[in-house]
Task: structure prediction
Amino acid sequence: KNEIDFTTYARNKPEGANTIKGSMGIGFHQSVGLYRYGLEFDITWEMRTTQQWVNVVNLTAEALAMAVPQRINLDMTHMLTFGNAVSYVDMDGVVRNTSTGDGLPLFNSAHLLAFSATTYSNIVPGNPLFTKPALEAAELLAKYNIFDNFGVMKQMSFKTIWCADTPNLTNDIMQYIRSTSDPVQANPGVTNPYKGKYDILPLSKLATD
Result:
């Protein structure tokens, strides 16, 4: 899929003069591969001829129905797990491309733009653990590191924090986004500005092969 960018701001038009022509450009693109998934189970004679047949049918149908969504969930999460590399090998031995249109890994501190020398980063400096300062650093990064391909700064609204599905991390995040008072303040009367600001999405398949 290609990204198409246009000149963002209109220009001054003096009386009697022609308007300044804007620019349009097709930025980086990435090819998308299509894969089909499937699975089958053997049904034995004993399964068909015992009183457990109905149970076997139901359990098998349920397993088959879940297998494809589970694999899609795993593959999507692996885009993040292997986001520091340009590819990985999946469980079927297939090399999966995890690079972006500029040829760099998904997570990189010097991503390129198609029509500008400006670079941008999507890595919080120092790779900090989750804390209030770390979250604020991530918000600052998002504010000043989103551009179109002409190098014009853009704004996006983020509503979800994704993370590894570990109790200590998910509990820390939920405390920040659901507490009424500021979790880092001893005074309970200090309002928590992060209350309700984000949703949390724990990823159980993150950092798995």
